[in-house]
């Protein structure tokens, strides 16, 4: 049956190899089970319900990917957009989390429609490669900055706005310990390094009394506090929400396209430079965001960490099925999630993972053309403005506006897609409206 479903021989793999790859994928991405409730609970959402939505949406999306494309690709709520959801959209703008989920739903539906009719290619080609990479890097810096604040390494200052925290305080020392352990595991290429780092940090925090023990195994959490609780906002009376929808939509789309392309090359799934089942994969990604919003979690997307399972030999959807099963089994560990995800604004257990994950997202910095000022300055502003303004939207806005301006004044306006100029005017109008 497995051979008929997944074509194991055709892909030169075996059941054992696929199972090992699936477990490796789970170990690599399972940190999101602990990080997601910790971040989204800051917006007022119930942490247990978010954990349920995280595990179930990830499992369902991964199963669909497996059977619709036969790709060894795992999906889960994406890092970066979860922080944007909680810290900027909800806490920063004061939007209720129910309406924020409604925006995620709209963005996912828009992505699904465009993927279905094939318009995504035009939008995919609109942003230059340098700006796409800058957005990913800026989100990484944004996540790392949040982690530095949660660790206590960076704190408020009345004159300089931010400054170094008390290095000798217990939370900071525990955070530094967690960062060191996680980085050491990654450097030694240990599978599931981030997850293991979280566990070791949790043990250290329990020993020093920063965290409290609530048990390990329990019944699955109650999903009802967030299940189907989204509210669709009236974007015609709240025009300021349109850029927010654009951010959720654009980042999800470009991130999924980049991830699928990278995984396609890694797993030798490309045919004549194209992913044969790209449309089905993107439809799965977009539909998963819609489903995740209904369940009660932020944007669900393809994970680049799927490459870990591919490195272990995973080549078919059986790898993804195995990962999805482990995500469902994780529902029985809610007490453990409470230990790890509790504590805000200081959380020395989760903070190291955020800092390290943010740092790993900077790996594409060499893909930016630093010699071309019309490319490098917009990329620089995008990366810089996200953490400093505490806004992914502002980072993208400054990047697009400066890109359009520099291409125009240098007589190189045809080098970028006309839609960039429309987006630039749109962001300018938004900023003028705030005056």
What characteristics describe this protein?
64% helix, single chain, two-stranded antiparallel ribbon, 435 residues, mainly alpha
What does the model show?
The protein has 435 residues and is mostly helical. The chain has helices at 2-6, 15-29, 31-40, 47-69, 81-92, 97-117, 120-124, 129-151, 170-187, 193-207, 242-266, 278-295, 306-311, 317-329, 334-341, 351-360, 373-389, 392-409, 418-434, and strands at 75-77, 154-157, 161-164, 270-271, 274-275, 300-302. The chain has a two-stranded antiparallel sheet. Strands 2-3 form a two-stranded antiparallel sheet. Strands 4-5 form a two-stranded antiparallel sheet. Helix 11 packs across helix 12. The longest helix has 25 residues, at 242-266. It is globular.
Instruction: Report the major sheet.
Output: 2 strands, antiparallel
Number of helices: 19
| Helical coverage, percent range | 55-70%
**Bulk shape:** globular
- Following the backbone from N to C, one meets helices and strands in this order, namely HHHHEHHHHEEHHHEEHEHHHHHHH
Brief rundown of the structure:
With 435 residues, this protein is mainly alpha-helical.
Please write out the topology:
Blueprint (H helix, E strand, L loop, with lengths): L1 H5 L8 H15 L1 H10 L6 H23 L5 E3 L3 H12 L4 H21 L2 H5 L4 H23 L2 E4 L3 E4 L5 H18 L5 H15 L34 H25 L3 E2 L2 E2 L2 H18 L4 E3 L3 H6 L5 H13 L4 H8 L9 H10 L12 H17 L2 H18 L8 H17 L1
Antiparallel strand pairs: 1-6, 2-3, 4-5
